Task: inverse folding
């Protein structure tokens, strides 16, 4: 397989995906530097690392295309991304000492993050729908699952940060339909 086997729109979508992931990563890193809430900061740093992992996946895919190889997409189990986010959140909540409501600035950052994750999910869904090459479709579907998990993590973190005392009554809300 070579670049000629992939329509230009697909290659352009891959470039846009890298830019989007890097922009979101920068937002999370900048926001983590400003937050005073320990949980809020750790979640933002986790998400920044996740975005970098996505960039690495997209770069590896693109590199394979440029080198004329068949890119391999390991989508993993259906619930891998959500389980990774759950495990992180549970471990982080156990490790933090503070149990206080976050400030409105922290909540606002998370709400912006939710919108960014939703927009990115929508972009990947559209790109997957237009993809002609099955591996490009698989890559965007993988990224959709990842963004879905990020959305769920942010949503649960917002719920916790707004009301830590009552959070555990609603803990079963790890689901998002895009």
Result:
């Amino acid at each position: 397989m070579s670049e000629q086997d992939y329509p230009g729109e697909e290659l352009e979508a891959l470039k846009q995906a890298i830019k989007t992931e890097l922009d979101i990563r920068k937002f999370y890193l900048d926001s983590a530097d400003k937050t005073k809430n320990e949980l809020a900061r750790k979640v933002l740093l986790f998400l920044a690392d996740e975005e970098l992992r996505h960039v690495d996946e997209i770069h590896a895919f693109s590199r394979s295309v440029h080198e004329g190889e068949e890119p391999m997409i390991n989508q993993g189990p259906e619930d891998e991304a959500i389980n990774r986010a759950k495990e992180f959140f549970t471990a982080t909540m156990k490790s933090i000492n503070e149990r206080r409501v976050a400030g409105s600035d922290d909540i606002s950052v998370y709400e912006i993050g939710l919108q960014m994750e939703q927009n990115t999910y929508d972009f990947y869904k559209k790109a997957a729908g237009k993809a002609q090459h099955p591996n490009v479709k698989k890559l965007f579907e993988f990224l959709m699952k990842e963004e879905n998990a990020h959305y769920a993590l942010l949503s649960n973190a917002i719920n916790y940060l707004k009301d830590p005392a009552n959070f555990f009554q609603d803990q079963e809300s790890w689901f998002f339909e895009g």
